[in-house]
Amino acid sequence: MGINQAANQLEQTKIVIKPKVGLLIIGIILLGANLRAPLTSVGPLVTSIRDNLGISNTLSGSLTTLPLLSFALLSPFAPRIARRFGMELTLFLSLILLTIGIGVRSVGGVPTLFIGTILIGLAIAIGNVLLPSLIKHNFARNIGLMTGTYAVSMNLCGAIGSGISIPLASSSGLGWAGALGCWGILSLITVFLWMPQLRRPSKSGKDVQTAQKEKKINLWRSGLAWQITFFMGLQSFIFYTVITWMPEILEQKGLNADEAGWMLSLMQLAVIPITFLVPILAGRLQNQRLLVVPPVVFLIAGIFGILYGSTLFIPVCMILIGIGVGTIFSLSMMFFSLRTQSTHEATELSGMAQSFGYLLAAIGPVLFGLLHDITHSWTVPLLMLAAISALIFIVGMRAGNNEYVTTQ
Fold it and tell me: What membrane topology does this protein have (predicted)?
């Protein structure tokens, strides 16, 4: 089935919304909203936090690295926790942990800042792993639509988090602690709206109980599982490296700090429509190899445009990079469902890929900065990102094949 035919079928993608299903959809949207904003809201406030608490640049920089390491450490264990307690209850407990973490982080002291940050990272790690498999189980005929819906919620709230942090901290007089604490309101609302999922008969709860009796699968020996893992991980490497370093790169190309910040926002906004459309298209295609090519081309074009182009082309380059990482991220989320035969397998694959993926994400900004320190130039680090984009193409063509990770 071609892309044009798939696009023509988008209008036919419908969910018959019953009250219980409607509450589940609202819950999934709100869960998605909580997966980025508590983290993206930190970046613009790092300078204020550092100056207010008198901490070093290294410590303040770890505020963005600690959650990624938390993702990497907990993701492999999230499937086991879900099998023990059920998926809905596990997500509910993660929301409570997230709310506690946001509150602790907002107390205002150095120890509570880092303890809260770690708790937030652990809570979000569970949501990252379990949401794709929750969607696979409850919306098997609409995986693409629901994946796109929660991805839009996640990225939109992430962009909002970046944009309103400074106004909340300065204009409203809340300070950095109050600005970060505001996201506890969203997580608390989500806690209450997720409660109906604990009362309804849980098919996913039965599924995870059944999974305990199933033969244990070893995805670490599956070549396809590793291709998907690298596809996810290398995308995360590029995304978090760009988020960390691109403002400084653009400032050295002649933009002021505000303009560089807006270019980063432009990149994140470009992701939003892509993260909705790509999962729907991917779900309609027999294999997804065709969808791997454009984002890699866009990534390489955007990176080379930043490296060798004039400032006039920077907005276009940032949009290209945004479309590239957004498409690859959406395909990664879809592969967790499309390349597995059960909710149990989807959860295991998601845990494996996100654990390794976020470990790469934590390494990326550090390695990029190290190459810059060694070469005193942005050329070699940016060429490294272009080379990684080419690697994404190689593993993506394999991951895009229409087969299952457990049939190898």
Answer: Multi-pass membrane protein
* Per-residue tens of pLDDT for the chain, all 408 residues: 444 554 454 444 444 556 678 899 999 999 999 998 998 888 778 878 888 998 887 787 788 889 989 999 999 899 989 989 999 999 999 999 999 999 999 998 999 999 999 999 999 999 999 998 899 889 988 888 999 999 999 988 988 887 788 888 887 778 999 999 999 999 999 999 999 998 754 444 444 445 444 555 678 888 899 999 999 999 999 998 888 888 888 888 988 877 877 888 888 888 889 889 999 999 888 889 999 999 999 999 999 999 998 889 999 999 999 999 999 999 999 999 899 888 888 888 989 998 988 898 888 888 888 898 899 899 999 999 999 999 999 999 999 888 888 755
Residues 183 and 234 in one domain: no
**Rounded distance, CA 217 to CA 129, Å?**
17
Clarify whether residues 333 and 238 are in a common domain: yes
* Long-range contacts at 9-13 (CB < 8 A, ≥ 24 apart): 9/284, 10/277, 10/280, 13/142, 13/144, 13/145, 13/280
- Examine the domain organization and report whether 83 and 200 are in the same domain: yes
Range of the domain at 46: 15-213
Q: 179, 213, 247: which is the final residue of a domain?
A: 213
Instruction: Tell whether 169 and 182 lie within a shared domain.
Output: yes
Split into its structural domains, the chain has a count of 2
